[in-house]
Specification:
10 helices; single chain; mainly alpha; 4% strand; 224 residues
Length: 224
């Protein structure tokens, strides 16, 4: 049993999701993935997990490469609660929200910052991204949304009145400075120092994550 388990755990087929080239494919040429490979890509992208029985059955019948069937399966998978993994992973990796867990604001500068607020900051951004996805709007709308999702703790942080309780609800924003991702406290927090803002860090974040134009490395200094 030990040897069998060792063989399974070190097998590339167990560790990696393999995709194989077509037998007669020229080196470096593009070709379609198989239906089963497409099912695996789709499932790990939307759910961060393995395909379910329905998706596998469609792929095994060779129907997933059909555009109508593929669209139907994508809609079904997005309506599944497991698609929350897509939102969480997207915001965590692309928008740097994973860094919030490591942020420790200076208590002298921000004495009211606590764990409840930390979690609320990330939740707000996740809900805004989720609403953009569910409503099938352009990703560019994330830069100009005139609404957000707040609970009482986060509303008090923003100075917005009339929001009570721990549940998040959609709230229209009257202050244009709060519109879009760049007005959300989560983004401002992960692009700041513990006790003050950081224009260089924030500018680099905009260039890299929003504009896709990473800045060159800082000039090297030389000592005589």
């Amino acid at each position: 049993m030990r040897l069998a388990l060792q063989k399974v755990l070190v097998s590339p087929a167990f560790i990696f999701r393999a995709e194989y080239d077509a037998p007669n494919a020229a080196p470096g040429s593009a070709h379609k993935v198989s239906d089963l490979e497409l099912a695996s890509r789709l499932s790990f992208f939307l759910w961060s997990s393995i395909p379910d029985d329905e998706l596998l059955a469609v792929a095994e019948r060779g129907q997933l490469s059909d555009k109508a069937m593929l669209a139907s399966q994508v809609r079904r998978m997005l309506n599944d609660s497991r698609s929350q993994a897509l939102v969480k992973n997207f915001t965590g990796q692309y928008l740097f929200l994973r860094n919030i867990e490591r942020i420790s604001p200076d208590p002298a500068t921000l004495p009211n910052f606590d764990e409840n607020l930390r979690q609320a900051l990330a939740k707000e951004t996740e809900l805004v991204v989720d609403s953009t996805l569910r409503e099938d709007r352009s990703v560019a709308d994330l830069l100009k949304t005139d609404y957000t999702f707040l609970n009482q703790r986060l509303a008090e942080h923003y100075g917005i009145k009339g929001v009570y309780g721990n549940e998040f609800r959609r709230v229209a924003l009257t202050d244009p400075n709060r519109h879009g991702l760049l007005g959300q406290a989560s983004i401002l927090t992960v692009t700041s120092y513990p006790n003050r803002t950081a224009p260089t860090i924030r500018g680099k974040w905009v260039l890299l994550q929003i504009l896709g134009t990473p800045p060159p490395p800082p000039p090297r200094t030389f000592r005589r």
